[in-house]
What we know:
The chain is α+β, with helices and mostly antiparallel strands. The chain contains 4 helices and 20 strands.
Amino acid sequence: MAKKDILTDEKKISARKKAKQKKLRETILIIVIVTILVLIDAALVVAVLKYNEEHDHDHEEQATEFEYPEYSEDDKLATEGIYYDITKTGIGLDVDMDKVAKEIDAYDYDDFVATNRESDFVTIRVEGYGDIIVALRSDIAPKTVANFKKLVASDFYKDTVFHRVRKDFMIQGGGVTKSGSDKKTDAIYGEFTENGHVNNLLHERGIISMARTTDRDSATSQFFIMHADSADLNKLYASFGYVLAGMDVVDAIAKVEVTKNATTGEQSSPKTQIVIKDVFFVEPKKDTGIGVAEQPTTKAENYKIKVVDADGKAVAGVTFKMTDEKTGKCPVYSLTNAQGEAGFAIEPSDYLLQIVQATGYKFDAKGYKLPEGTTELTITVEKLPETEE
């Protein structure tokens, strides 16, 4: 072989060797890069898992450490506050808002006891926040309160949420589940002034009221608690009670971070779910001044009121109050049931029964006398003619 050919072959061999070495270096570099990326990914996964574990642990610790108020279930204490003196905050139509304002957030959890029976007081327990104790004013909005009590007794409100929060306005809940679906229940008559039912419980801080659509009789279960005064709502929504303890809980909820509601566009949807853990009945202790100190006397008589139309048919849902003409006090503010009747036990006296609301019927606004010694009274009301649309 010629010397020239030998040199050419050596050059070819050297070039192939260099190409193999270059390819090997490139392969090693790729392997190193891939290894580094895998290690980075693994480190990120470990960091995320560790963060989540710590976050979950913190959440669990918070849930475990949070102590809800305890209410004594002592039998003696549980009977002391059931006779609620509604006159302390103004009766029915003549609501004294100055007295109401003095009662709002004026009490502590220790002023109440748990009860298994229906009462005029409920605790709204909010998961991770605490308790809100509300006084229900059946003298102002009897149908609304009756509906609310029915829902409480049936555990309707358990695991619903405060789905709408507007700081310096109100917090709204009671009709949406944790999964975001609406809970359905029957609509009720709207007990507010612009709907024919006098309601002078103004929408001031601490007042609880019923939410509704543009339909005046569309309220079902959703309620809202005022975070601040709003005169624009007065006479347009059925206010039916107020907060006796727990406005700090309302304040805390009102301050949560919110996002835009996808449906309404309103900046009011809490970023973190606010769950109503439970709503249950409580009663005030005797020494709070909320309950009447003395038990009913043995002289109490069973009174029975019945309301019928001209044909003798029962008229349900008639709201009335009875005033003792001797003292001027109103011991009873009630409404007739499906049979057009209402029964209660009060001390005998000269009473004047006044109908406050009877939708679709004409009645004597001056009232109907119950002379002393009379315990039953049947009232006939006249059906109003239907108006043509």
